[in-house]
Specification:
heterodimer, A: alpha/beta, Rossmann fold, B: alpha+beta, 5-stranded antiparallel sheet
C-alpha cells in the first residue's frame, strides 16, 4: 500500500520537486490546511506579505531576477482578487508565476459562500492557463503541469485553485515533473533556410539595426551572451525596449539607448531610417512603434520570437523566425561564423555612412537636461545614484511613471536580470514588493526601488515585510508631489489643467520609515545628494530615501501620441521656450 | 505640439474583412468554451455563430465551429491565439467561399396556420431537406438544413405561411473528399 498524502502535503511535495525555495503568501480560511503543513517542509520558506498584490509582485521580482518561476499562495475570494493585478502584470510582461489559491469546499462552490469567488473565471484572461482542482487524484499532475505551462514557451502566470476539502483529502503522490511537452506544442519552429535568409539580409544591409526586447532576458543569461556576440560580430547598432535593458551593455558604443516613446533621439531615428530591422524578442508594442502606418517605412523587418501570435500582430514583417532566442541566436552564430568570419571588419565600409548618421543624431544629446544648483533635478538624482552604485552588482526595480523612464534613460544596465519594471501593464506600486522579492532571491546584493511618491504609496505596506525579514531594500523616491507622468501629459495635451494629479497631503516619508522600523533619509539640495546616497548605501537596513526633486520637470525626449519616430519632441534645451533660464546650468 | 488629446495613437488603415469558419478541436473539460469565447470577446473579435459538441467520447475531444468576420490580420491572430490555449489541439480555418468545404446549419421552424398554408410552407422548404418533426391540425414543426443565408431568407419569406418561431444551430463544417484536416 503506497503512502497516502493529504492535498496540502501534495502541494508542498510538488513545490519541493520543482525546487521551489521561497513562496510569497498570505493565509486565510480556505488555505489553512496548506498553511498547517508548512512547518513540515523545511526546504520551503514562506514570506508573509501585507497584501496579496504584494505577494504577486514580490514573486515577479523573484522570478525576473533569477529566471526561476515565482510562487505565491493566497486564500480564496479577496485573496485571489487582490492577486489579479499582479497576475495581469506578469501576463503582460511574460513573467513565470505559479499562483496557488484556496477555494471554498467543493460542495459550497456556486452557493455564494463566504469568501467565495469564481477565481478561475476571473483569472482566465490574465493567466496562460488555470485549473480548478476537483479531484484529489488530479492535484499532483495539475501542479506539475502548472509549472510546465508557466515556464515553457513564452513564460507567464498560471493559477491553481484548490478547494479546501481537496486540501484535506488523501491520495498517492506521483512526480510528474519533466513529462513530455504539453499537447506536443513545440516552441522552436524555424528552419535553416530562415537562418540563411537572415544572414543574407544582414550581409546586404546598409542601414541595419538590432531592436531587442525582454525575450532575450527570458531566454536566459546565455541568450544575452549570444546577442552580444552577434552584435559585435556584425558591428551593427543596437537599441533595446524597456524590458530588454541589460541584455546588451548600455555603456557600449554600439548601444543607442532605449527606443520608443521616451527613447533616445538616435535610437528612434535609426529605427525610422533603417533598411534592416532585426527584432530579437520584442513585440512591436504601441509605446515602441508610435504611429504604426509610419513605423520604419523603408526597412525589411525580421522578427525572432518564441510566441507565434506575436508575429504580424502589430507590424507586418518580412522574415519571421519562431523559436527560443537562445536557440535561434546559436544557429545564426554557427552559420554566420562558418561563412562570414571577420564580417564586422569586411562590412565596416558598407555601414560607415550609417554610423556617421547615427553619430549626428547622437550629437543632439537628447537625454541632456538643464541642471540646477538649487533643486535636485530627477535626472541628476538617477545619474548620481548610478555613479555611486555602478561598481556594485545592483538590482533596480521601479514603480511606474516619470521616474521609471528617467531610470531607464539614465541608469546604465550591463547585465540581464538586474532591471525589474512593469512595462506592459504599467502597474504603479510594482517596485516596492518586487524589490522585496529580488532581495529574497539575492540576500547579499544591493536592491534599489527607484520610485515615485505616488506609486510607492500604493504598496507601501510591504515595507513591513522588508523589516520583518531584514531585507535591506532601498526605496529611492523621486518626490515631486505630483503624479509626474499624468502632470506631464496634462501640461502637454490638456492645456495645463492639472486635474487631480497633485497629492496635497503626502505623508512625511522619513517619519513613515521610522514608523515601519526602518531608516528614513531626506535629500533636499543637489549639494547634499551624494552624501545622503552614500549614507543610504552604508545602511544595512531597509531605507526610505525621500529625494525632493524639481516639481515641474518633464521627461524628454518623447514621441507625442500619434506621431512617427522621426518627429520627436526634445527637451527644453532644444525647445525655444526655455522654462528655466539664467540660473540653469548643467551640473554634470 | 500635437493636437491629439490621447496618450494612444489613432487607428490606422483598415483592411477588408472576410467571413471565416474556424474549427477548433479542444479537450472537453470545464471552462474550455469560456476560454475560447473569452478570447474572442476579450480581444474584440466577432462571433457570428457557434456550434460545439463532443465528437470523440473516448479522448474527450470537442469540436467547436465558429463563424467570424475579420481582416486577414485579425483572422491570423485568432488562429494563433487559439493555438496558444492549453486545451486546444488544432485549429482549422476556412473561407466561406471555399468550395472544398461543406457548411451546414440546421433550423427548426414552427408554423401555426391552416392546412393550406402549412402545405405551402413545406413546399417552400423542399430544397433544404425538410423533415416534419411534429404535426397537429393547426401547426407543424419543420426541420431544414441549409446555409446561413438561405435560412435567413427562408425565415423572412415563410412569415406569410404562419411561421411563429425559429430555432437554429450555428454552422458546422466538413471538408469534401477523403482528406481530413490534420
Amino acid at each position: 500500500m503506497p503512502k497516502l498524502y493529504s492535498g496540502a502535503e501534495i502541494v508542498f511535495k510538488c513545490l519541493e520537486d520543482q525546487n521551489v525555495s521561497h513562496i510569497f503568501g498570505y493565509p486565510g480560511g480556505a488555505v489553512l490546511p496548506i498553511y498547517d503543513e508548512l512547518k513540515n517542509f523545511n526546504s520551503i520558506k514562506h514570506i508573509l506579505v501585507r497584501h496579496e498584490q504584494g505577494a504577486g509582485h514580490a514573486a515577479e521580482g523573484y522570478a525576473r531576477s533569477t529566471g526561476k518561476p515565482g510562487v505565491l499562495l493566497v486564500t480564496s475570494g479577496p485573496g485571489a482578487t487582490n492577486a489579479v493585478t499582479a497576475l495581469t502584470d506578469a501576463y503582460m510582461d511574460s513573467v513565470p508565476l505559479v499562483c496557488i489559491t484556496g477555494q471554498v469546499p467543493t460542495h459550497l462552490i456556486g452557493t455564494d459562500a463566504f469568501q467565495e469567488c469564481d477565481t478561475t473565471g476571473i483569472t482566465r484572461p490574465c493567466t496562460k492557463h488555470n485549473w480548478l482542482v476537483k479531484d484529489i487524484n488530479d492535484l499532483a499532475k495539475i501542479m506539475h503541469k502548472a509549472f510546465e505551462v508557466a515556464t515553457t514557451g513564452r513564460p507567464g502566470p498560471v493559477l491553481v485553485d484548490i478547494p479546501k476539502d481537496i486540501q484535506f483529502q488523501k491520495a498517492k503522490y506521483k512526480n510528474y515533473k519533466n513529462n513530455k511537452i504539453l499537447n506536443g506544442k513545440s516552441h522552436d519552429n524555424y528552419s535553416q533556410k530562415n537562418i540563411d535568409d537572415l544572414i543574407n539580409l544582414i550581409q546586404k544591409a546598409k542601414k541595419p539595426i538590432f531592436y531587442t526586447g525582454g525575450g532575450v532576458i527570458n531566454s536566459g543569461t546565455k541568450a544575452s551572451e549570444l546577442l552580444r556576440e552577434l552584435v559585435y560580430s556584425t558591428g551593427f547598432p543596437i537599441t533595446s525596449t524597456l524590458q530588454g535593458l541589460g541584455s546588451f551593455p548600455a555603456d557600449d558604443n554600439q548601444f543607442l539607448g532605449m527606443l520608443g516613446m521616451h527613447g533616445t533621439y538616435e535610437a528612434n531615428n535609426a529605427m525610422y531610417s533603417c533598411d534592416l530591422m532585426i527584432n530579437v524578442g520584442a513585440r512591436f508594442d504601441d509605446r515602441i512603434t508610435g504611429k504604426i502606418d509610419e513605423f520604419s517605412p523603408k526597412s525589411k523587418k525580421v522578427h525572432i520570437d518564441i510566441d507565434p501570435s506575436s508575429i504580424n500582430k502589430n507590424v507586418k514583417v518580412d522574415l519571421a523566425i519562431v523559436g527560443d532566442i537562445k536557440s535561434v541566436l546559436t544557429s545564426t552564430l554557427n552559420t554566420f561564423k562558418k561563412s562570414k568570419n571577420n564580417f564586422s571588419k569586411s562590412n565596416k565600409h558598407q555601414i560607415s555612412n550609417w554610423w556617421e548618421q547615427i553619430q549626428k543624431w547622437r550629437s543632439k544629446r537628447s537625454l541632456d537636461y538643464i541642471g540646477s544648483e538649487e533643486t535636485i533635478k530627477p535626472q541628476y538624482a538617477i545619474e548620481r545614484l548610478y555613479e555611486l552604485t555602478k561598481d556594485k552588482d545592483t538590482y533596480i526595480t521601479t514603480e511606474v511613471g516619470q521616474h521609471q523612464m528617467w531610470a531607464a534613460q539614465h541608469y546604465k544596465f550591463n547585465k540581464p536580470n538586474r532591471w525589474m519594471t512593469s512595462g506592459g501593464l504599467g502597474t504603479m506600486g510594482y517596485g516596492l514588493p518586487a524589490a522585496v522579492g529580488v532581495q529574497i532571491a539575492h540576500p547579499k546584493k544591493l536592491v534599489i526601488d527607484i520610485a515615485g511618491e505616488a506609486s510607492v504609496l500604493m504598496t507601501m505596506q510591504e515595507m513591513s515585510t522588508a523589516v520583518q525579514y531584514n531585507l535591506p531594500i532601498k526605496i529611492f523616491i523621486l518626490n515631486n508631489e505630483y503624479m509626474g507622468m499624468v502632470r506631464q501629459w496634462q501640461e502637454l495635451l490638456h492645456d495645463k489643467n492639472y486635474s487631480e494629479s497633485y497629492t496635497a497631503a503626502l505623508p512625511d516619508f522619513v517619519k513613515m520609515a521610522e514608523a515601519y522600523g526602518c531608516v528614513g533619509i531626506r535629500a533636499k539640495t543637489p549639494e547634499e545628494l551624494d552624501d545622503k546616497i552614500i549614507e543610504m548605501l552604508n545602511t544595512d537596513r531597509p531605507v526610505i530615501f525621500d529625494c525632493l526633486v524639481d516639481k515641474q520637470e518633464n521627461c524628454f525626449p518623447m514621441i507625442p501620441s500619434g506621431k512617427p519616430h522621426n518627429q520627436m519632441l526634445l527637451g527644453p534645451k532644444d525647445q525655444k521656450e526655455k522654462k528655466i533660464t539664467g540660473k540653469g546650468r548643467t551640473l554634470v | 505640439m500635437a493636437n491629439s488629446k490621447s496618450a494612444y495613437s489613432f487607428a490606422g488603415k483598415k483592411q477588408k474583412p472576410d467571413t471565416h469558419i474556424i474549427v477548433v478541436w479542444v479537450d472537453n473539460e470545464a471552462g474550455v468554451l469560456a476560454r475560447v469565447v473569452g478570447l474572442f470577446s476579450g480581444r474584440g473579435y466577432n462571433i457570428e455563430s457557434l456550434a460545439v459538441a463532443e465528437v470523440d467520447q473516448k479522448q474527450n475531444i470537442s469540436r467547436i465551429t465558429i463563424v467570424t468576420t475579420g481582416t486577414p490580420q485579425v483572422v491570423d491572430q485568432i488562429k494563433l491565439q487559439l493555438k496558444k490555449l492549453v486545451p486546444v489541439h488544432k485549429v482549422a480555418d476556412f473561407k466561406r467561399e471555399d468550395k472544398n468545404v461543406i457548411f451546414k446549419e440546421m433550423a427548426l421552424f414552427k408554423f401555426v396556420a391552416n392546412n393550406g398554408k402549412l402545405n405551402k410552407a413545406f413546399e417552400a422548404c423542399k430544397n433544404f431537406n425538410p423533415v416534419i418533426l411534429d404535426q397537429t391540425n393547426k401547426s407543424n414543426v419543420i426541420q431544414i438544413t441549409a446555409l446561413r443565408r438561405e435560412i435567413d431568407t427562408m425565415s423572412k419569406n415563410l412569415k406569410k405561411f404562419g411561421l411563429v418561431s425559429v430555432s437554429r444551430t450555428g454552422a458546422v463544417a466538413m471538408t469534401r473528399g477523403s482528406e481530413i484536416f490534420k
